[in-house]
Amino acid sequence: MDAMEEIRQTFFEECAEQLAELEAGLLAIENGEADSDTVNAVFRAVHSIKGGAGAFSLDELVAFAHIFETTLDELRSNRLDASETVLKVMLRSADALADLVSAARDGGNTDKEKNEALAGELRALVALAKGEEPPAAGAPAASSSSVEYDDGMGDFDFTPVAVDLSELMGDMPGNRFRILFRPHDRLYAKANEASRVIRDLLELGVGTVHCDSSEVPLLPHLDPEGAYLNFTIELETEHSEEKIREVFEFVEFDCELMIEPMEGPIVRQEIDLEGIDPEIAALLSRVSGGEDFNFGSDAFGALEGNDESGEAEDGSEEPNEDLAALLKTASEAESVSDIMAAVAEREPKEEASAEAPAPKAEAAPDKSAETVKAPKAETEKASASAPSPGQTIRVDLERVDRLIDLVGELVIHQVMLSQRAYQAGLARASEVAVGFDELEQLTREIQDSVMAIRAQPVKSVFQRLPRLVREVADISGKSVKLVTEGEWTEVDKTVIERLADPLTHMIRNAIDHGLEKPEDRLAAGKAEEGTVKVAAMHRSGRIVIEISDDGAGINRKKVKEIAGNKGLIPPDANLSDDEIDNLIFLPGFSTASQISQLSGRGVGMDVVKRSIQALGGRVSITSKPGKGSTFTMSLPLTLAVLDGMIVSVGEQTVVVPLTAIIETLQPKKDEVKGFGGDSRLIQVRDAFLPLVDVGRELGYSWEPASATEGVAILVEAENGSRSALLVDAIQGQRQVVIKSLEANYGRVPGIAAATILGDGRVALILDVDAVVATSRVDQSSFFTGMQQAAE
Amino acid sequence: MSRTILTIDDSRTMREMLRATLVAQGFNVIQAEDGQHGVEVLEGLDQDPDVIITDINMPRMDGFQFIESVRGNDEYRAIPILVLTTESDGEKKQRARLAGATGWIVKPFDPTKLVDAINRVAA
């Protein structure tokens, strides 16, 4: 069923939001930053999950959510202290709930034993909360605190009615009951109606209704909202007493009710309710007189046969002094229609009765419509200024992406159009050119705005971190505090999604390898609890995420040793501290002696680095011995556009991402040095940098390009190492729309993506790191070759 | 003329569930996201809904407060209000009744019971 599937999806989306709120709330409580709103929100989150889960018959989830909710309710009503122990259980329960939701969504399994144990802990907390409150056990309902959750009726004080089962079951169909029904004022005040109850009752079988109006006072004493009528219903039905009680379900506490089995047959004939306007019965039940009413077959029969209200409205019944008198007339009237007419005539005189919540007679609606108008005008004003809670709309991501794609095309065509116009001789100072400028400005703004739609706060990723930290801390036996900053920093949704994995690994790494064991920390004079800080910020058009710990820092001696042993660096390599730190990102580097069940999951920092690079990001590390390490990730805000430098390489046009470029320079002959084979170095001030011939690396030409005729673009690779890219010429700088090459063609080494230029041609976007790395491999193989030759 | 139901629930899932169920049964459905919003929606309507169905646990204004607010307003007090509650919420049922709820619907509800409850309280 489609609609159901959609709601199911909504449910799981909502679950994710509620789980996040739950965890954030619990953490706030743990940090002592919570107010009652937070506690309520936490409770509501679990409550909502339970409600939705119930609708989808996710029993396991419902059961766990239920006990969790019960415990939270104890917390909410301050019967349970938000102690550290309690919160630990709650946080673990939140994790378990998240697992149950995932399992329900994806059809996986959960650790039943663990959940049951956790549910046991929660139950124990509830018991503790209840036990601590001395009067809870035996106290009557006065404090309403002793709520029995599994009892449908809680602490209602209703008296069980003895039922003779043999009587009920004896001669079905044809159980006979006498029902005494005496509504209280409050029954009507809650918009219930005696008439509707009686209507429903008579649907169960055949019966008569007697109305006792003897309690209706004289008009001066009549409270228009008072309840003065008592009903006796004699009912013959095939149903049991239980079924009859069900009819009174909503009103049983707002009336006196007695149901007793009857001897002997009911003499009245069957009542056909079809023809009776329930409003009539309702009206009569509210406005009554001193006579006994008989709602039996006589009156109803008369109504059925003579329901001509038009004629009745002309009835010249004299208005009487009070309602009792009216009703007296009514009881003598020939038909219910006559009664109606008489009542309707009196209605306008009864100011108060128009306000009564009872359904109104036909004369009344005009008046009530008037009273509605005046306040409505005011409230409309108020509601216009009041912010409605739904200030967001949900849009299918595909639609947004389609829009982004179209805007991308728009940008390309706008650029193409103006370029062609200028090529065709359009004067720069012409009005058309001014128009083009404005169009360009607008197009950019549209593009930025559309991109902003996809931007989301990193909060959604950061929210998952506390759980991760708890788990890793538990397993590694370390005490860890997580600090997050800048969780509202926005970045493209895709970036966020793909950020989770590397971030997870880096945090795992920070706790597992970065932080010391509590005893070592104490010995080093640090706080027992280690801190891992994750901060997000915008910096020069990119998002930067720093993961820092206050641990021991990188053990450089060991890192260098390992890298040397694994042949990643020459044994006698002279490396700076930074260079040593960055060795951990090298493929094949794994501090084997430290492999644990956490970090050593077969994912090294090289994989982390690669996945960040795949996002157009960079990662680096700084470390201070004894003080800790900081990993810095820098990512583009969007994956849809890129600021690039357009360069010519051979016959081709290539885009170099601007973020990688440090500077450009014109190589002079004496600055370029041969370095064996085809390798060349370029001297930039007092450093020698490898000169990477882009044309050769990409296979555009076999001949080495002339360095002095080209342009060298200084780039910085992710590891911070610098190189110079040799290209033929620079065409300009431009924002380009990224088109996936993999999706449209296939993966090409050294190329990150493609774009369409203003002139309509396709240009490739250079993967700077890959190009530099491949040239490195060439160089290092040459380097090793040299070494081997020397040996 | 089909009846109009105002549903108030902060859970999108429940709102959609109610809407799907009620629309399939031929009701008009108007939605609000919490008690406060419910009051605003109610005030903006030209014609009162036939029945209001409200959740209890909601931010800003909960179901109890909402019912009290409706019952305290001469204009709206006659509108039947059904409360959405869970089987185990004995206390809530009682509180809702004290606040002035006309009746209740136990979650998870099946369509028949939902319509039954509406018919029971609707004029």
Automatic annotation (TrEMBL), chain A:
Gene3D superfamilies: Histidine kinase CheA-like, homodimeric domain (1.10.287.560), Histidine kinase-like ATPase, C-terminal domain (3.30.565.10), HPT domain (1.20.120.160), SH3 Domains (2.30.30.40). Residues 437-639 form the Histidine kinase domain. This is Chemotaxis protein CheA. One of its GO terms (cellular component) is cytoplasm. Residues 363-381 have a biased composition (Basic and acidic residues). Residues 305-321 have a biased composition (Acidic residues). Residues 1-104 form the HPt domain. Involved in the transmission of sensory signals from the chemoreceptors to the flagellar motors. CheA is autophosphorylated; it can transfer its phosphate group to either CheB or CheY. It is an enzyme of class 2 (transferase). It catalyses: ATP + protein L-histidine = ADP + protein N-phospho-L-histidine. Pfam families: CheW, H-kinase_dim, HATPase_c, Hpt. Residues 641-777 form the CheW-like domain. GO terms for biological process: chemotaxis. SMART domains: CheW (SM00260), H-kinase_dim (SM01231), HATPase_c (SM00387), HPT (SM00073). PANTHER family: CHEMOTAXIS PROTEIN CHEA, SENSOR HISTIDINE KINASE CHEA. Keywords: ATP-binding, Chemotaxis, Kinase, Nucleotide-binding, Phosphoprotein, Transferase, Two-component regulatory system. Its EC number is 2.7.13.3. The modification Phosphohistidine is found at H47. GO terms for molecular function: ATP binding; phosphorelay sensor kinase activity. InterPro entries: Bact_Chemotaxis_CheA (IPR051315), CheA-like_dim (IPR004105), CheA-like_homodim_sf (IPR037006), CheW-like_dom_sf (IPR036061), CheW-lke_dom (IPR002545), HATPase_C_sf (IPR036890), HATPase_dom (IPR003594), His_kinase_dom (IPR005467). Residues 298-321, 344-390 are annotated as: Disordered. The keyword Nucleotide-binding applies.
From TrEMBL, chain B:
It holds the Pfam family Response_reg. Gene3D superfamilies: 3.40.50.2300. One of its GO terms (biological process) is phosphorelay signal transduction system. The keyword Phosphoprotein applies. It comes from the Bacteria. The modification 4-aspartylphosphate is found at D55. Residues 4-122 form the Response regulatory domain. This is Two-component system, chemotaxis family, response regulator CheY. Keywords: Phosphoprotein.
